[in-house]
Amino acid sequence: MKARIRDTAVTVAAVATAVALAACGADGGSAPAEGDGPRIGVLLPDATTARWETQDRPLLEEKIAELCDTCVVEHANAKGEVALQQEQMDSMITKGVDAIVLVPVDARSLGPAVRKAHAADIPVISYDRLAEGPISGYASFDGQEVGRLQARALLRAMGDEVPGAQIVMMNGDPSDPNAVDFKKGALSVLDGKVRIGREYDTLQWRAEIAHMNMSAAIAALGDDAIDGVYAANDGLAAGSISALKSNKVAPLPPVTGQDAELAAVRRIVAGEQYMTVFKPFAPEAAAGGAMAVAAARGESLDRLATDEVRPRGGGTVPAVLLTPESVTVDNIEDTVVKDGLHTVAQICTPQLEADCDRAGLI
């Protein structure tokens, strides 16, 4: 599908409503036997990042079911392995599914599989990470804005240490186009304001690699010479913080993060992590699910999009790019709690009771 964007932007909520109404048949929406409707593949990249299986997958499946009660979802997780995800793509193509929602482990390596799906007239909706090749649509957040939010928060947290502060940058996996955008956005804010003492790219976003790299940075720079840590997501923040604590760095420097994982929010309350970036999963899944249903039915994605992107090796395609939010100890209740991602009871364990009281959460 090579639909182009019309000028009129439509909100995700309105789109979902319109598609839901279209999904209702004359029989009042009774569900037929399994397998009677369109089949949609949902291919996730790994199980190390909590969000994929705990948030995105159930929300995508829920939205697809809401919009298309005849649709069947076929799910697979690549467990961080490019070769496995390539096999999963081949399997979906062989089965002749009607659409694929893809979060690529490695955008470049999955490009040939995307082209193969396109040749088989199977539309691919790139979800959260921009795949290479002739995709049909894209649902995600503004990646450069994520990096800018992280960098601005880090500068605020370091306060009087800026200018001249020395930081460690713990970037994500360079094979993930999002990681490239996060880094680009962060550097647009940090350049000229801080010194980057050490910088690392973290393969597969693995926390244990971040721990190892942070330990190396401490050994090279000194345990009192790190004024801040740019960590691209909460897993890398966890690995970085564990290394700082293991090396007796005190007080801990401010550390950024992303994804608003429950453990990260608890670390923020405890004062170990300064911030995270909250990307509300429900609107992203609503956009991705709506695109998948429309694509599976052979419908244009134009009306679903608020933006457009041009992936490497592909033409301009409809996109929904949502706005992320910065979360610190001061606005936990107004962000992740208000949105229903986590409850105060989940965040405020008995060990954090005093910290939660100080934060005004209890």
Q: What features would you describe in this structure?
A:
The chain is of the alpha/beta class and 362 residues long. Helices cover 43% and strands 16% of the residues. Strands 2-1-3-4-5-11-10 form a seven-stranded mixed beta sheet, with helices on both faces. α1 (12-23) packs across α10 (281-296). Mean pLDDT is 90; it is low at 1-33.
| Terminal Cα span | 51 Å
Low-confidence stretches: 1-33
Mean pLDDT: 90
Give the beta-strand count.
Answer: 12
Radius of gyration: 21 Å
Oligomerization:
single chain
Structural class: alpha/beta
**Strand order within the widest sheet?**
2-1-3-4-5-11-10
Q: So what's the overall shape?
A: globular
What can be said about this structure in brief?
The chain is of the alpha/beta class and 362 residues long.
Features:
disordered N terminus; globular; 362 residues; seven-stranded mixed sheet; single chain; 13 helices; three-stranded parallel sheet; alpha/beta
Structural topology:
Elements: H1 12-23, E1 39-44, H2 51-67, E2 72-77, H3 82-95, E3 99-102, H4 107-119, E4 124-127, E5 137-141, H5 143-158, E6 165-171, H6 177-190, E7 194-201, H7 207-221, E8 228-231, H8 234-246, H9 262-270, E9 276-278, H10 281-296, E10 307-309, E11 317-322, E12 325-327, H11 333-337, H12 344-347, H13 353-358
Parallel strand pairs: 1-2, 1-3, 3-4, 4-5, 5-11, 6-7, 6-8
Antiparallel strand pairs: 9-12, 10-11
Helix pairs in contact: 1-10, 2-10, 3-4, 5-6, 7-8
